[in-house]
């Protein structure tokens, strides 16, 4: 069964393919085994296996085997590697980039995208997003979060706006939080606070 291309990254065949490529090209990992890749991209192992086979055949990835494990990474010799990385940065890139940045900040308990960028990633129709909204839950140093978002924004070519709330604030009842809970979200770190 064919799936529609993702609205935020229409040049990729599917949302799953864009997430898989983003993990391989942008997460900072030198190489990933297929199980790790499936977990990180939120895809079934069989889907990852098929997609990796296609990407290996196209020369975009290379692999090495260690025992039974297949380790894959982008092929530095492919003329497509840099253009694919550039496309991923402005489309599917914010999630792995933000995860890598926010994971290293003390006090971050959870983080997720919300707003128009998250809605397009979840295939909800609408206009192309101009910026990226990220909710950070915990008690991190705000400047560390804002600087991390600035670095990611510089890489993806879109402003990344962070809202920081404590877990207690996330449990409050407000129009803003009700809208966030009703709307599309994309997890970055941890679980959604209301689940």
Would you mind describing this structure in some detail?
The chain has 195 residues and is of the alpha+beta class. The protein has nine helices and seven strands, in the order αβααββααβαβαβααβ. It has helices at 15-26, 34-41, 45-57, 81-90, 94-103, 115-121, 142-156, 167-170, 175-182, and strands spanning 32-33, 61-66, 69-74, 108-114, 131-138, 159-165, 186-189. The protein has a four-stranded mixed beta sheet. Strands 1-3-2 form a three-stranded antiparallel beta sheet. The longest helix has 15 residues, at 142-156. It is globular and about 50 Å long. The model has no long low-confidence stretch (mean pLDDT 86).
Question: What is the topology?
Answer:
Blueprint: H1 15-26, E1 32-33, H2 34-41, H3 45-57, E2 61-66, E3 69-74, H4 81-90, H5 94-103, E4 108-114, H6 115-121, E5 131-138, H7 142-156, E6 159-165, H8 167-170, H9 175-182, E7 186-189
Parallel strand pairs: 5-6
Antiparallel strand pairs: 1-3, 2-3, 4-5, 4-7
| Rg over alpha carbons | 17 Å
Helical residue percent?
A: 40-55%
Give the strand order, joined by hyphens, for the main sheet: 6-5-4-7
Question: Span between N and C termini?
Answer: 31 Å
- How many helical elements? 9
Average pLDDT: 86
Please give the oligomerization state of what you see: single chain
Order of helices and strands: HEHHEEHHEHEHEHHE
- Contiguous uncertain segments of 5+ residues: none
β-sheet strand percentage:
15-25%
**What's the overall geometry?**
globular
- Structural class label: alpha+beta
Number of strands: 7
The main β sheet shows up as:
4 strands, mixed
């Amino acid at each position: 069964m064919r799936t529609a291309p993702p609205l935020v990254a229409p040049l990729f065949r599917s949302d799953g393919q864009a997430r898989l490529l983003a993990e391989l090209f942008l997460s900072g990992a030198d190489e990933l085994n297929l199980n790790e890749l499936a977990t990180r991209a939120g895809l079934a192992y069989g889907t990852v296996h098929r997609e990796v086979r296609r990407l290996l055949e196209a020369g975009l990835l290379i692999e090495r085997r260690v025992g039974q494990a297949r380790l894959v990474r982008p092929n530095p010799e492919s003329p497509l590697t840099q253009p694919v990385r550039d496309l991923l940065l402005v489309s599917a890139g914010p999630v792995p980039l933000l995860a890598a940045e926010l994971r290293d900040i003390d006090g971050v308990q959870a983080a997720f995208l919300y707003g128009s960028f998250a809605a397009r990633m979840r295939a909800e129709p609408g206009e192309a997003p101009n910026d990226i909204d990220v909710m950070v839950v915990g008690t991190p140093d705000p400047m560390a979060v804002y600087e991390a978002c600035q670095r990611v924004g510089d890489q993806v070519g879109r402003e990344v706006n962070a809202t920081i709330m404590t877990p207690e604030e996330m449990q409050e009842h407000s129009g803003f939080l009700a809208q966030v809970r009703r709307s599309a979200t994309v997890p970055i770190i941890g679980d959604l606070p209301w689940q």
